[in-house]
Write a structure and sequence with these properties.
It contains six helices and 15 strands. With 327 residues, it is α+β, with helices and mostly antiparallel strands. The strands form four sheets. Strands 1, 2, 5, 6, 7 and 8 form a six-stranded antiparallel beta sheet that branches. It has a five-stranded antiparallel beta sheet with strand order 14-13-12-9-15. A hairpin with a 4-residue loop joins strand 6 and strand 7.
Length: 327
């Protein structure tokens, strides 16, 4: 990564465990604590980080006239220099400035890469240094962000949502029984140990049916896993999420009714899998895929009031006001 992983992660599902393991699950939950989002500390003592980005004189020249380094008036757009910053947290906060009274402008999801500008501004609120990003705001480098675009978390989360479509990702819900969450590509022995030997036949049959229909085309052709996902790859969760107790290959079973966004879908060991945006490897034969969605947004021209409604099914009567005021 190279930073140490957080002491505990959280996924949006809760593991279902057998009664004789319930006390272990309880201990795992009790030991989990949600860390403050990166950059949440305050009481800054401002100074520039040596060797990070341009020197102080260059930074001063690139700052708007009268602006204070790291201040609310110093977060405006800038010409990219090639310097990049990437999110390695589930939610990396973007702030208005680097001071104690800063507020949040928004956040970056894991894998997002943006233009950055140094030099890094180090204070007690961010030991790794604050960087300006485009189009505006400051991000703290540390557990939530990195200046290394080759960071494993950036690679694992490189599939970004497809904007402008009905569904940015492929979406699915837990079937019955819900899927187990693997954190590595499981071999057939691991699948049998975790789920029972019967899942191998079930998974192979599901994969065959998918390839005989148009479903495989929707699922990236159910080809090989992405290049970064090899039998030796052990996936970690983005900072800011939690993970239940792990066994040799899996991190427990998802809860009933859990929903997933799938960034990648592929075939492995005669079974179809999806890699979720929270970096869980999920067997697709334990999921119910959402039908494709064509409903999308519309562009509202400047100066027009956003009086827009979507009609999705059934008949609809449209009424117009006449000159007399009636309809």
């Amino acid at each position: 990564m190279p930073e140490a992983p957080p002491s505990c992660y959280q996924a949006p599902q809760v593991s279902r465990v057998r009664h004789d393991w319930a006390w272990i699950a309880c201990l795992a939950v009790l030991s989990c604590t949600r860390a403050e989002p990166p950059g949440a500390e305050s009481e800054p003592t401002l100074h520039l980080k040596a060797g990070a980005g341009p020197d102080a004189s260059t930074a001063a020249a690139s700052t708007a006239a009268g602006a204070t380094q790291g201040g609310p008036d110093d977060h405006l757009p800038f010409e990219p220099t090639g310097e990049k910053l990437a999110s390695i947290a589930w939610r990396t906060w973007i702030y208005t400035d680097t001071g104690p009274n800063r507020t949040r402008l928004g956040y970056l999801r894991a894998g997002a890469v943006v233009d950055a500008r140094g030099p890094a501004i180090v204070n007690s609120g961010c030991e790794g240094g604050w960087y300006r990003i485009n189009p505006r705001g400051f991000v703290c480098v540390g557990k939530g962000a990195t200046t290394d675009p080759s960071h494993p978390m950036v690679t694992w989360s490189s599939r970004r949502p497809v904007r402008g479509q009905g569904f940015p990702y492929v979406y699915a819900m837990s079937d019955e029984p819900p899927p187990h969450r693997y954190f590595r590509l499981p071999d057939k022995r691991a699948m049998s140990e975790v789920e029972g030997a019967h899942v191998l036949d079930r998974g192979a049959a599901w994969l065959m049916r998918a390839r005989e229909t148009s479903l495989a085309e929707r699922l990236d052709g159910l080809a090989e896993p992405p290049d970064f996902l090899t039998p030796t790859t052990v996936l970690e969760k983005p900072y800011g999420t939690k993970s239940p107790l792990r066994t040799r290959s899996a991190a427990g079973q998802a809860a009933r009714g859990s929903g997933f966004a799938l960034a990648h879908t592929f075939a492995w060991n005669d079974r179809a899998f999806g890699l979720s945006t929270e970096l869980d490897v999920l067997p697709l034969d334990r999921l119910v895929l959402h039908p494709e969605q064509s409903l999308a947004g519309v562009v509202i021209p400047p100066g027009h009031a956003p009086e827009v409604a979507f009609h999705v099914k059934g008949s609809l009567t449209v009424w117009k006001r006449s000159d007399s005021g009636g309809f």
